[in-house]
Amino acid sequence: MRKRWIRELPLHAMILPSFILAIIFSYIPMVGIVIAFQKFTRIRGNGLMGFFNSKWVGFDNFTYIFMLPDTVQAIKNTVIIASLKICTGLIVPIIIALLLNEIRIALIKRGIQTLIYLPHFLSWIILGGILIDILSPETGIVNQLLGYLGVEPIFFLGSNHWFRPVLIVSDIWKEFGFSTIVYLAAITSVSPILYEAALIDGATRWQQTRHITLPTIFPIIILMLTLSLGNVLNAGFDQIFTLYNATVYETGDVLDTLVYRTGVVNAQYSVATAIGLFKSVVSLLLISISYWLAYRLSNYRIF
253 vs 23, 246, 258, CA distance in Å? Predict the structure, then answer.
């Protein structure tokens, strides 16, 4: 054990800074969860005094939030948006990976990989500004093209009909490159002998893809799908907060943005904490189920 500890000491030292940061910024703040069970008030202008002296109300805050129509609508929007992102985030990268796998010129293949992977490194503040300019009803290039076709300008970011599609398409634009690389890596593990045997038997490229490539990478597909189930209540706060406005609350307001408005804007700290705690508990259950499914379906284990 002593020799093993000495051998693994550099690995423990490497993970120590991340461990300390996680304790400081993730676990110590969890003490504030008690606010969800209090009628939090600030005493003498000092938040710490209010934290320890606020009145306990039990589950009254949770009862209150589920009586609010905004909470029900936010849960509905969160599930719909997150589910659409999960589905499209699974299908699009697989299709692109299969298409890229058919490209035989390495320079073109690498160039396309770089282009589709680049948006992943940009923040939603940058991409949000780009989208706002592109989709502007007056000066946006999209509405200018629609105008040439005789179509009236569309307020994409101010319409409840168009806001969700904009979220889904822009999320695909930003993130599908990362997942594509994962599937491309899985495709490279397919034995060339299988393709050669299929070619001798007269299989077309589509038949090779259908009967060799897809079945081989199917465990990776199942793994990516099950792991994404834990994000059903994470619809993407940074993206939505950058793009949404009051006119699209009906279809774009999610739990995270509701927590922001309730706690930061309206200073209802107890109610906001209750919403956040509800979301965290449900997310924990979903993540636990997703990892259990990943283990059962694809033998994936963390430890």
Answer: 31, 9, 7
